Amino acid sequence: MSFNNINHRKLFLIITFSLLSFLAINSQVRSAPSPTPISGWAWSSNIGWISFSSSNDHDANTAGTQQSAFSYGVNKNSSGDLTGYAWSSNIGWIQFGGLAGWPTGGGTTGSNAKIVGNSLVGWAKALSADGNGWDGWISLDGTNYDITLTTAAGAFCPSVDCTGYDFAWGSDVVGWVGFDGVIDSNAPAPSVSLSASDTNITSGQPSTLTWVAINSTSCDATFTSSNSVSGSQSVSPTTETTYSISCIGINGSTVTDSVTIYIDVVPSGWVVVWGACVDGTKTGTATCPEGVTCTPSTPPDPITLPCVKKPIFIEH
User: What is the pLDDT of residues 218-250, one digit of tens each?
Assistant: First the structure.
């Protein structure tokens, strides 16, 4: 075999090996799960708002108007580790992940920030630490305080729905930090259903509204003072009324649902024969059966109802 042939074979083997290695590495990279972005705001009474993503409004009090001009954020990987940077206009950058030399304290976890089970544990650090007594460390768990997660959702739990203190501790400078406004962007989408026990009633009669929200933290409606994600409320409208409810999901989004209760226009005792639905309205003709006292003695004529109504049955 000639020297040139040997060199050509070596070159072919080198190129083939390199190509296979590239394909293997590329396959691993493409198959690696993407990190979950964390968004929303934490709050400290000492230093104010802490933003976890540049996709947030830059001012927590003016939603949707002042997003950051530079990119930053905190991400959660498939192992539950939090990495990246949050931002405070008062103390600057707060680092998650890539830290070492964290302090020790009662009940603290000696690690970088990570999610273990349903708890956020470990440490984060404000990078503007002055070295003169304030070291910048923020403990995410310790004796008598912790940050919990909603069941199976991975979203940070609002304090009103969780047991425990649901705060981190950042010493005298940062103080207590509430995480109930911090959101896991991969949390499942919320939904809400609102229904009425009877959508056709006579004026002033009761109907029970029932609502059930899923993957939600709270609900709001004008027909009830409750903010619960499920419940019921009796209403007695005297005119056709649409009731609505709005619920906030654990992923920060809002969902709504509504139901309309119609008022029957058929007087007592009268029997109505309904005509066909025309342009969303049906017309009926009322008759008073023999031996029945009908009130009033003369029926309204004509009687009209929306076609979406269910049929009206008059019992004798």
Answer: 899 999 999 898 999 999 998 889 999 999 876
Q: For residue 233, how many other CB atoms are within 10 A of its CB?
A: 16
Mean pLDDT of the chain: 77
Nearby residues of 149 by Cβ (< 8 Å), 6 or more positions away = 115, 118, 119, 120, 155, 156, 157
Q: Residue 22: phi, psi to the nearest 5?
A: -65, -45
Instruction: Say what the pLDDT of residue 307 is.
Output: 62
Residue 37: name the closest of 185, 182, 179, 150 by CA.
185
Mean pLDDT for 180-209 is: 82
Q: Give the pLDDT mean for 124-151.
A: 83
The SS3 of residue 22 is: helix
Q: How far is CA 80 from the centre of its chain?
A: 20
pLDDT of 312 higher than 50 = no
Interatomic CA distance for residues 143 and 180, integer angstroms: 19
Task: Write out 191-260 in H/E/C secondary structure.
Answer: EEEEEECCCEECCCCCEEEEEEEECEEEEECCCCCCCCCEEEEEECCCCCEEEEEEEEECCCCEEEEEEE
Residue 225, phi then psi, degrees to nearest 5: -90, -5
Residue type present at position 175 = G
Q: 39 - beta bridge partners? A: 183
**Amino acid in position 219:** C
pTM (2 decimals)? 0.53
Which amino acid, 62?
A: T
**Angle (nearest 5°) at CA 110 between 129 and 144:** 90
